[in-house]
Amino acid sequence: TPHRDDNASLLIEAVFGNRIVDISASYLIQRGFLAKPIIKFLKNSKYTGDKKDKYPTVYKNYIINNDERNGRIITGASRLVEQSYQVLVSYQRLNHGKFLYDQISKNMPCVLLSGKDSSEIRMAAKEQLENKEINCILASSIFDLGVDLPSLSGLILAGGGKSSVRALQRIGRVVRSYPGKS
């Protein structure tokens, strides 16, 4: 597991003992166990709200209701699918996911998943992706852990966030090796 920002690594070591081996992503990429990622950061306009705003207000204004940022997410998902990527758009708030889904689904078949969906619905979406009936899934944090979809090859982090561990776990969804994926 990656080092934890919240110091939970100490708890993991307390339960399981000291780390036995440390294998880097570079090592796994060089040996073909992981695909080499291409990571792009896109700059958005700076937040223009009041510096005294609380985090929920900033998140709502700068992440959820940010037309510039949402436009880049929607365009980015379409471009990746046009280039034959299978894309995961990761969001945090359901209203944001619904908005993005409404826009992205105008251009291509895709599925919106959240914690409200049953395991049957989630499995059906995975099958649609594996069968190439869809090439885009928008998913909340339910896809952060324990999801194995090695055909995923593109990721858009639409929800922002502060945790580097969660970002690494999300990236881990798309770097798994898969036939034909480089």
Give a short overview.
This protein has 182 residues and is α/β, with parallel strands linked by helices. The chain contains seven helices and four strands; from the N terminus they run H-H-H-H-E-H-E-H-E-E-H. The two termini are 24 Å apart.
Helix content: 40-55%
What summary fits the major beta sheet?
A: 4 strands, parallel
Strand arrangement, major sheet: 2-3-1-4
Secondary structure tally: strands = 4
Please report which band the strand proportion falls in: under 5%, 5-15%, 15-25%, 25-35%, 35-45% or over 45%.
Answer: 5-15%
Shape: globular
Structural class: alpha/beta
Between the first and last Cα atoms, what is the distance in angstroms?
Answer: 24 Å
What is the element string, with H for helices and E for strands? HHHHEHEHEEH
- Radius of gyration equals 18 Å
Q: What is the count of helical runs?
A: 7
Residue stretches low in confidence (pLDDT < 50, at least 5 long) are none
On the 0-100 scale, what is the average pLDDT?
A: 89
Task: Describe the protein's topology.
Layout: H1 8-16, H2 25-30, H3 55-64, H4 67-82, E1 87-90, H5 94-104, E2 111-113, H6 119-130, E3 136-139, E4 154-157, H7 164-172
Parallel strand pairs: 1-3, 1-4, 2-3
Characteristics:
182 residues; 7 helices
Write structural notes for this entry:
The protein has 182 residues and is of the alpha/beta class. 40% of the residues lie in helices and 8% in strands. The chain is built from seven helices and four strands. The chain has a four-stranded parallel β-sheet with strand order 2-3-1-4, sandwiched between helices. Strand 2, helix 6 and strand 3 form a beta-alpha-beta unit. 23% of the residues are buried. The model has no long low-confidence stretch (mean pLDDT 89).
